[in-house]
Each structure stands twice: as C-alpha cells, then as structure tokens.
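[User] I wish I could look at a protein chain and see how it folds. I have put the entry right below:
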Amino acid sequence: MRHLFVSLLALPLLFACSSAPDRPEPDQLLLRSVEFEGGRVAYEDFGRGDEALLFVHGWACDMTFWRYQVPALSYLTRLIAVDLPGHGRSDPPLGELDMDTLARSLVAVLDHAGVEKALLVGHSNGTQVVRAFQRRFPERTRGLVTVDGALKNLFPQEQVEAMAAPLRGENYLDVASGFVRGMLGSRLDESLRSEVEERMLQTPQEIMVASLLAASAPENDSQDPIEVPLLAIHARAPFWTEEYEAYVRDLAPDCDYVVLDGVGHFLMLEDPEGFNELIDRFVRERF
C-alpha cells in the first residue's frame, strides 16, 4: 500500500528532439525567475506568445524532469516549465506551502512571462497543483493534462500523516530514498534512475513533508466541475479503477481518459515519444 501511495507523488525533466520544421532553436530556451512571497520562483521559457503549455512537476522534483517535452513540443506552442516554491532552483515560500500558495506561484510565473492563458500539465501530485490553479483562476486555464495523478484523495488523511512522520526524522533521506525507488519504473536506464533519485533527494526536508501533506488536503476532494478540456493519462495500476474513471468523467465531461500498458509512474521519461504523441493529439484536436 505504501508504494501505491508513494507512486502518486513524483517528478519531471528537459530536452529532446522534434522533427517539426518550425521548431525554435534551443538557444531560445531561457532560465528566468520571478519574485514571489519573499523569494524567487525559477522557470524555463521557450518560445513566444500569450498562451503556453505550462509543465508542473510532482513531489520532490523539479522542472528538469520534463526534459523530453521541453523543448521537443515547441512546434505546438510556447512552453514553460517551473520549479515550484522550495524545489529545484526556487526559494521556499515564507508562509505555508499549501495548494493555494502553489497555485499563486504559477500565476506569478505566467504574469512575469506575459502569458494570459495556459494549458497546464501536472505530473503526480502536480495534478493537485494544476487542479488548484484551475479552481482559483479559471479565466487563465485553457485546459488540463493530468499525468498519473489523482483528482481526489485516494488515501485517508491519517494514513498520509503516518507516511509523513518518518520524513520528519533524522534519517529522512533514507526514508525518501525508499519512496523514490518505489516509484521508479523498470524501463528507466540505470543512469537516469540514479539522476532521478539524486535530484529528488536534494529537496529540503521541510518541503518534502509540506508538499506531501498539501497533496492530501481535504479540498482535493471538492467535486466542483472541470469545465475545460481534460486529458487524463495513467500508467496501468490497481488504483486507476473503473470507479475512478467514472468519477473523472463525471467531474470533467470534456475528458479524454487514457491508461497505458508497459510504462510506470514516470511515463513521460519512460516512453517520451508515446507521451508526446498524446499531448500533440490533444492540443491539435482541442485547441
């Protein structure tokens, strides 16, 4: 059961190839940052325009986990990948790290980049972040893509608290390492597996705990409708049941729901070509 929960918590990376003739040159990808609540939030920006694909990583991760999407999908639209507060190259927030704070950090990035509306892509507990954004800022949301993440809490709060408790101890790195190894799929080569673990274990202890608890907040169970196009992509696993699919389709009538075989939790890393094809088709058909 622990691995089922941990596998919902996850990551993202940065660079791949595209055959599109109008793809911008790689040197157009810029590292930027914006002031947010006493610190800076870092993001990568590729392309131009007042609309963008905004990539949001999962638990204990950073923007570099979208390496096979940014800038590979740049022929579709402008691309932005963000380090959430306290992750990667972003400073931790001065106040509480909750879903409201994370959603507002995305608005700060979009405002700084001059982007009016975004199609948000969230991996694992990045799903709850993009959902929080859509709730609070519907006028800025073109659509959502959820990647192996849940649109409701799959585990009771008491169980999540029990999961977080060992991360508060002195040996939290050993605990977090066990979490990470439980998430990794069999298709990742050894060098990439080592990089994933190393990057995730660089996340500050307090951020690991706070972001884990934020991802299980009661508000995640709110059944307010998703009134924008939704693409839900999952790796086949026991918790993506027929009942869960029905829940999602009821929540978001304009929904494409996809379950993939042969990949694990980090499907955008394990099968980037297949993943990118799903994004390409969704964007071309819906926008």
